[in-house]
User: Which sequence fits this backbone?
């Protein structure tokens, strides 16, 4: 149940981010910042979630950073080509 | 290690990969980022050495842009904009300048503002505005993108504007074949003075390209076409040699058919990469749950949701940008 709340909060963050991304369609500069914001928010969510579950470890932090980086770099470069 | 074992090691949690698909290890994810960046730098290099073989083909016409723009204005109870030769010329010069000096902005790197083009062609305005677009496939998509952007929409539906100038120009920007659309709005001083001779006119506002004027419902009046759209003839203006080259390019004088679009290539790589990670994450989630594997790791369900959201953003991204 505790995890469900965490995941709902994650989905809310991502939904807002995706909604903004859609609203600012074709405004590439704003979309880039939204993507960066989503990546940072995701890493924060990950740290908070793992800390609350008492499972935090620097390796896990690194994993969240890498996952966020992969996805954000791909989107940002695509926006650069659009 | 044979191919099956290698595949299992790469995509499924196994004792050989410490209970987690190898492709999901930070080291391999870092390698994937590096490979993606390498592909983008290689593409940039290719664009530099042979810019004419990559490209973009669009079906945008000034006639259609004008038609849809006036249609949108009519839907909002606004009178249609009338084409003006001087504004057409200003829009053409702006597009030529962007190609010549390789920039995509309202203000050029040397600080040249849109209003300087109005002045150059001798258009004295009371109100002026500029909308830019690039890399769209058709006229409808251009106007739709402007309508979806609050500041551009304000320009399109600004009741203060009476006249319009348009240019649709093909050329090479940053090594990529590009279609630029320049839309310039204006209200000449004389027209407004006559129309408002008994009212107090607002002061000139040359920086209202993003003016937030709400559309005011006024009766639609019949369009009075006083000018024609720019015809594809060489422009003999006092442009710099670079501008002339860009305008010559714009007229399609030195064209080779585009082979593929850098955008579509990047999108394909992006979908493949994120799809690969997403598939590996989904498989990992299922196998970890089935085999009750306990390990020190981030939450793959969260990764799945995050990567899935950004993959959706990638899929829905279409070429084109407005400014």
Assistant:
């Amino acid at each position: 149940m505790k995890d469900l709340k965490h995941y709902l909060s994650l989905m809310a963050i991502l939904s807002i981010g995706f909604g903004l991304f859609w609203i600012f369609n074709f405004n590439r500069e704003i979309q880039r910042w939204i993507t960066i914001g989503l990546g940072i928010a995701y890493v924060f969510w990950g740290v908070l979630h793992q800390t609350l579950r008492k499972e935090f470890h620097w390796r896990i932090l690194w994993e969240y950073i890498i996952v966020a980086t992969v996805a954000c770099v791909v989107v940002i470069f695509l926006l650069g080509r659009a | 290690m044979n191919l099956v074992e290698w595949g299992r090691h790469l995509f499924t949690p196994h004792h050989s990969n410490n209970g987690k698909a190898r492709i999901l290890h930070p080291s391999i994810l870092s390698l994937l980022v590096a490979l993606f960046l390498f592909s983008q730098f290689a593409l940039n290099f290719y664009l530099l050495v042979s810019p004419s073989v990559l490209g973009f083909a669009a079906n945008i016409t000034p006639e259609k842009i004008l038609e849809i723009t006036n249609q949108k204005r009519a839907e909002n109870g606004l009178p249609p904009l009338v084409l003006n030769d001087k504004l057409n010329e200003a829009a053409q010069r702006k597009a030529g300048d962007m190609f010549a000096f390789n920039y995509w902005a309202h203000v050029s790197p040397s600080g040249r503002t849109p209003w300087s083009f109005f002045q150059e062609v001798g258009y004295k305005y009371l109100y002026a505005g500029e909308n830019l677009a690039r890399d769209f496939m058709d006229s409808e998509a251009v106007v739709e993108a402007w309508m979806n952007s609050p500041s551009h929409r304000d320009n399109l539906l600004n009741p203060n504007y009476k006249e319009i100038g348009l240019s649709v120009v093909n050329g090479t920007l940053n090594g990529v074949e590009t279609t630029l659309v320049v839309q310039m709005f204006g209200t000449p001083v004389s027209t407004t003075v006559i129309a408002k001779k008994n009212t107090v006119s607002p002061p000139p506002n040359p920086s209202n390209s993003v003016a937030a004027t709400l559309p005011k419902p006024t009766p639609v009046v019949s369009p009075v076409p006083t000018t024609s759209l720019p015809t594809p003839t060489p422009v003999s203006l006092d442009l710099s040699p670079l501008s002339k080259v860009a305008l010559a390019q714009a007229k399609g004088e030195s064209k080779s058919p585009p082979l593929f679009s850098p955008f579509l290539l990047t999108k394909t790589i992006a979908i493949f990469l994120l799809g690969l990670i997403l598939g590996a994450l989904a498989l990992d989630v299922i196998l970890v749950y089935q085999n009750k594997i306990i390990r020190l790791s981030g939450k793959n369900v969260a990764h799945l949701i995050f990567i899935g959201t950004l993959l959706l953003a990638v899929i829905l991204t279409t070429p084109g940008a407005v400014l």
About this structure: Residues 48 and 54 of chain A are 10 Å apart (CA to CA). The two ends of chain A are 42 Å apart (CA to CA). Chain A has a mean pLDDT of 92.
